[in-house]
Every structure is written in structure tokens, then in C-alpha cells.
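Lab channel / #folding
Pinned by the channel admin:
"Please post every new chain as: sequence first, then the C-alpha cells as a reply. Keep commentary short and put observations after the output so the thread stays searchable."

First post following the new format, from NK:
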Amino acid sequence: MTTASRSEFGDFLRSRREKLSPESVGLDNGRRRRTPGLRREEVAELAGIGVDWYVRLEQGRTVSPSDTTLEALARALRLGKVEAAHLRALARSGDRQTFTRESVPGPIANLIASLELPAYVTGRRWEADRNILVFMFIEPDTRRLFGANWTSEARRMIALFRATHDLYADDPAFVELVERLRAHSAEFAKWWNAHDIRGGASGQKVLIHPQRGAQRYDYATFQANDDPALKLAIYTPA
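Reply from TO:
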């Protein structure tokens, strides 16, 4: 792992540990706890690894966990499928290529322009002609656009972006974006620290049109064969 990836790996372990209660993993709560969640030694015991080894992992020190150790940690921390995949990706992030900003092929740009439905394409930093995260957290129009659903949608976006960010945490392009969002949005700064992870999925959104009011849409995302880092999102009336 790179230095930044080790740090994200450790932060992710800590965030999952702090979300678990002793009762949820079959442990006696015992004496009063000063901090939320499980203790490091409890996670180590549940995973069947040494306490010192686990502490080194959580502190982001130079260690290389095996696949068996990663699986044991995922079980001990009760990680879901997407979270467990993220843990493995972080542990193997030293194999990734250097980030370069994607370019949208002409046919894909023409396809989006020709659609009469809401649609857009993004890269790993969630931008094509502009950054969707900046739009969501900094521009005031989005609060009117999403209405009462703004908070849930904003947190969903953070969790989706975090899965990619952690693999490029030391890249200047990602560092600059996160610092900008932290500086201009207290909500982003707070929710970013939760280190939640989500995978992409289809679903429904309610958007508030200035004249027509609430409009419900089904949405789905698709990877481009030209460049799997590009994702096309299309909305259709529900």
C-alpha cells in the first residue's frame, strides 16, 4: 500500500470498529467504555490475529495483510459485501495506475446531447464539464433541487465517492477536491469523517422543478466500454 492508502485503510478499520457495539458481536459490554464501539483488542480477538498486528494496521503502519487476514477482519467487523471489497481494494492499491483525468469520447458526448431525458457522464473525480460534488455541496441551487431529500442524497454521494477516493487519496487532484469541499461545506466535512462506503446502484429520486414541482425519476448508471472509469447516468420519469 502507498502511505496514503495505509492511512485510509487504518481510518476505515477504525470507523467500522467504532460503529459496532459489543452486544452486536456477542460480547459482554462489561465496564463502562470511554469511547464508542469495540476495543482494538476485541477486534483482534474476533479476527484471530495479534493485538499488536491489528494496532499496526489501524495506525496505517507498513504492513501487508494477507487475503486470509482481510477476510478475518471483514468478518470481525461485520462488513457488508461492498465494504469488504473496499478493504481488499485498499490493501492492494499499490497496484493501481496513476490518476489521469478522463476525456469523454465524442460519440458518448453526442449520445448525452441527443437524449431528451436528464443524463450526464462522470469520471473518478465525479466530473466531466463540471464537478457534481462541488455542485451538490457548494452551490445553493441543489438544496432547492433535492428539497427534503438533500441530506440523504448528499450522504449517498459521499459514500459512493469515498470508495474511489481512498484508492487515490495521495493524488493532488483528489486532495484538492476534498480540501475544497471541506472548506466550503460543514456537512461534507462532518459526513466525510464517517468514512461510509457504498456501491453504485439504481433507484429513485425526487427532484423539485421550479414550475412543475416534485418530479419522481428512476435512475441507473452504466460503465463505458471505452473507459470503465467513465459512468453514464440516465434518469427516466417514474
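NK: The first strand starts at residue 119 and ends at 122.
TO: also worth noting, The mean pLDDT is 89.
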